[in-house]
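Slide 14.
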Amino acid sequence: KVSSHCILKLEPPPMSKSAGVNSFLYLSLPRFHIPPSDWNPESFILEGAEAHHCASVMRREPGDEVVLFNGQGDWAHARVTQANNRRVELVALAQRRTPPPAVSLSLLQAIPKGGNMDLIIEKAVELGVNAIHPVTTQRTVVKLDVAAAAKKQVKGQQLAVEGCKQCGQNWLPQVTTPMGSETAGENLHTQ
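Slide 15: predicted structure.
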């Protein structure tokens, strides 16, 4: 009989390599997203839903440490200085940049019925997909008008942010507005 063994070597992701700090420290800290337009390394501020999530849901208080990311590879280890339900102010303890992915992966996904698309987006983010294109096909049960398609895109993008927060991904995938399979194919060829 022939037996095979698999040895798994665990190494911290590139984001956690920093001098003088436990390399797994960042993996245990809660993560929060700041859009690139609001990314200010001098003074970080969480507002809206992210502030509520930080202060009320995760119960972070002044002195607590978190990880912030902007979805374009920049991230920071930060300390909360002020926190309430609407606004959380933080100061950077360390800042890093995660290199862009070596390979660009796009997922064309026919829209399934029910809430399965949420799970698909979450898992695609965890796998490192750069773009997610929901597609309607001849056999797609879900029918969307323009307003419903726009709502699906916004919800899908928020799910991508949540997936990045969960798995430690610092590059935010783009979720496009649902489109027909012909349009999706044409768009991929032009990229």
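Speaker note: The first strand starts at residue 31 and ends at 33.
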